[in-house]
């Protein structure tokens, strides 16, 4: 038997596994690296976050990736080159984190790499007859495995697509295993570039669990800031948005899109919600001359509205579930204030209460997915479209 395959079998047979989960989101601020201790699998899964760090990307590397991100006219040679370079860079950052933590690479069982999404194309967005749902994450897993010497599981979203899903969101698979609680309805709300949530019924009935994108989280606000305020990547503490005023006309135009009428689960991305989308909405609403602060205030209301309406559609009673927040948007005080005002019966918290750093949650999710790929079996989520019962990830051996 190949030594790496034999090692893989031994790791899969263990009760506990040390897994590094990686996440690089649409903000491209850096690589989230979460060191997790995963015990057992399936309904008996336990996970402990041992270490977490976000290592910022250098400006030139970030600009390189942004040059092909979410572009229909992306340079194919650049895509090819960055597929390799991102894998190499992520491997270097993993080794840097391990050095910081004083951990030897041979102590790690598995790396779980999400890669870098550069284009997301569900049927609802591309609209091309005869073509399937599609998504593309680059940052080759073989480079990570070879450079670190650690078995790497990557490219998780393709199995989701192959089994009938849209490749996102994948949070439902980890959220159900780790965060479900008997007799307590929960919503795991992640506000990243795109806002999404997982609904976890207190019955723990997997057939009633689902995860869905609901609209923009930070992506439009961040894109607008980066265009108009060079050198600033986001509106820290919503200071600029809080100094502006809501434009009802612009908000109405922003909400005028078929995406908001599609049933759950559904996915979207910056391929739809981008500065071109904003410009068209401003032209439609005759708000081109709106002050930057007013645009930012309205974009914040836009993100809040998508989240609020989606939660109201999910919970058809006055008894609101407990909402656990994660992602960069939870640090936006204006956005959080809007959510709490519109959902007064809901209890808001963060995943800190569940012993998972909310900034680390997505990286932890991919560690969970890798653990299931090795030692678990598909959870039966029923026959609903968009939530296939699968284990995900492709395995890269270091030699």
Task: Summarize the entry for a quick read.
The protein is of the alpha/beta class. It has 14 helices and 12 strands. It has 2 domains: 205 residues, Nucleotidyltransferase, domain 5 (2-Layer Sandwich), CATH 3.30.420; 184 residues, ATPase, nucleotide binding domain (Nucleotidyltransferase, domain 5), CATH 3.30.420.
Number of strands: 12
Q: Mean pLDDT, rounded to whole units? A: 95
What overall form do the CA principal axes indicate?
Answer: globular
Question: Which structural class matches the secondary elements?
Answer: alpha/beta
Number of domains: 2
% residues in beta strands: 15-25%
End-to-end Cα distance, whole Å, is 13 Å
Helical residue percent band:
25-40%
CATH 4th-level superfamily of the largest domain: ATPase, nucleotide binding domain
- H/I helix tally: 14
Q: What is the level 1 CATH name of the largest domain?
A: Alpha Beta
What's the architecture of the largest domain in CATH terms? 2-Layer Sandwich
The fold-level CATH name of the largest domain is Nucleotidyltransferase, domain 5
Main β-sheet: number of strands, strand sense, barrel status?
Answer: 7 strands, mixed
Low-confidence stretches at least 5 residues in length (pLDDT < 50)?
Answer: none
Q: What is the N-to-C order of secondary-structure elements (H for helix, E for strand)?
A: HEEEHHEHEHEHHEEEHHHHHEHEHE
Q: Could you tell me the radius of gyration in angstroms?
A: 21 Å
